[in-house]
Write a structure and sequence with these properties.
single chain; 121 residues; alpha+beta; Beta-lactamase Inhibitory Protein, Chain:B, domain 1; four-stranded antiparallel beta sheet; 4 strands; globular
Length: 121
């Protein structure tokens, strides 16, 4: 009887628990990036605070315009404070001597509106 109960519980957990997982990419560490364009595309429409958590704070001085838009830059070829993507080795690989910068634009509500890469080839 105890064996049947244990089997029933196992079957229950195997069928119920996976339904709580998401199949879409959300902010935070949820997968690895194949390309630098994947990094940019993932963050369009997401919160700046979450981007900082994943990539670390920008190491290029942010610029704010009169309309509240802010340009933030990460140069991956110079020293910077790492984020969670660094900690878990999720960023695309790039060789020594490769220039790689990511630039993101956030609106006044701290939502990422656009991004571009410079180099990273």
């Amino acid at each position: 009887m105890a064996r049947l109960l244990a089997l029933s519980l196992l079957l229950f957990f195997v069928t119920v628990l996976p339904s709580g997982c998401t199949s879409t990419m959300q902010p935070g560490v949820t997968g690895f990036y194949q390309t630098w364009d994947d990094v940019i595309n993932r963050w369009i429409g997401k919160n700046k605070k979450d981007l900082y958590y994943e990539l670390g704070p920008p190491n290029l001085h942010p610029h704010k315009s009169a309309d509240g838009m802010e340009e933030m830059g990460w140069d991956f070829t110079i020293d910077r404070m790492p984020g969670q993507a660094d900690e878990y080795n999720l960023l695309p690989l790039y060789g020594a001597g490769v220039s790689c910068r990511l630039i993101f634009i956030a609106d006044a509500n701290d939502l990422i509106r656009s991004g571009q890469r410079i180099g990273c080839d």
